[in-house]
Amino acid sequence: MFSKILIANRGEIALRIQRACREMGIKTVAVHSTADADAMHVRLADEAVCIGPPSSRDSYLNVAAILSAATITGAEAIHPGYGFLSENAEFAETVEEHGLAFIGPTAQHIRMMGDKITAKTTMRELGVPLVPGSDGALPDLQSAREVAERVGYPVLIKAAAGGGGRGMKVAKTADEIEEAWTVARTEARAAFGNDEVYLEKYLNRPRHIELQILGDAHGNVVHFGERDCSLQRRHQKLLEEAGSPALTDAEREEIGRTSTEALARMGYRNAGTLEFLYQDGQFCFIEMNTRLQVEHPVTEMVCSVDLVREQIRIAAGEKLGYTQKDIKMSGHAIECRINAENPATFAPSPGTVNVFHAPGGLGVRMDSALYAGYRIPPYYDSMIAKLIVHAPTRQEAIARMQRALDECVVDGVQTVIPLHRKILADPSFQKGDYTIHWLENFVAEQTKS
Questions:
Q1: Where does the Biotin carboxylation domain lie (predicted)?
Q2: Were both Cys, which of 74, 316, 366, 427 would link to 358 (CB 3.0–4.6 Å)?
């Protein structure tokens, strides 16, 4: 097992990894920008190294600075968390070339799954169901027209190297295909330096279902059930729950078996998440995230497993030590992402936190690096906390989350807590009757009123 790990991230996820390391008796090294000198993950680490100015490009994306910090502190491994360099295959390769362990998948699998077209081709060959669409990148507009006619409108044109909703455009009719094609390619080129796009059938009322998996270096792969991540705004998740209120036990078992068999054949190692669109009883693979997910706590709550601890064990060469039949899901969990944003306009709201009070009680977990007096910098993602609850049933989990939100105090900046209260009180949400389009429509109605 490692004796010291460098955490190449910031905020609540850096603190989350520190906690797992401390319980395992592993020392931690925090890296930070000058803007994060007073951050909680810096204060609580065994060692801290400043790696650059506030800009992510010059600090948390600065590979040379991160590797130098690992070298001078004697770290044996690097955990990338999520975001930043977590799905950068070149970074994973460079880490291992420097004699350090990368706590994540192999560079080969990061690269394979990072390209949406390659990922879909691979999954198709492994027997995982896909959304109908093009077999690969579209060479020209005419090809896009032909595929769209074959699968039927509406269609979605997506960047091959995309993420976060960038490089994605819907064409509802043949008259809109040229504009969607042009805009998607332009956005993809600007955001990712790659203008390759592909086409999928646009599903009008799907849910976003993802499956958490772990694989070790000895050929063992298991899953920890699904998360329903359908509540999204502009393709950014806001609330997640485990399990999904839409699935039957038979559907859970089938998609779990199909996914783990596919990843075992790939020889996949460490944590990963397969993401699907689900509609009318059918699962369609859309992408794979080769890293720890923001919403991993809901899975931890229903499965009583420390996924970060498991990541570290796997990276150290240990076997999982359990099989699929040993994993039991119990109760229901909900996570609300607390962003420092205006709850109506979603404009970022950086600034000083005057008062911070985390809710507590049975089945309540708050993952956050906030403290009273902390100044939220304007340079990074606006998520400042994750509030997670667990209860025996979904209705009890909703009630517990409502109570926890009422207890949560973040004074000095705006947050989306008022929006979460409205979502949880809505009859459609309480019945579990929502799709990936529901939140956009809900927000629009709230704005009107």
A1: 1-444
A2: 366
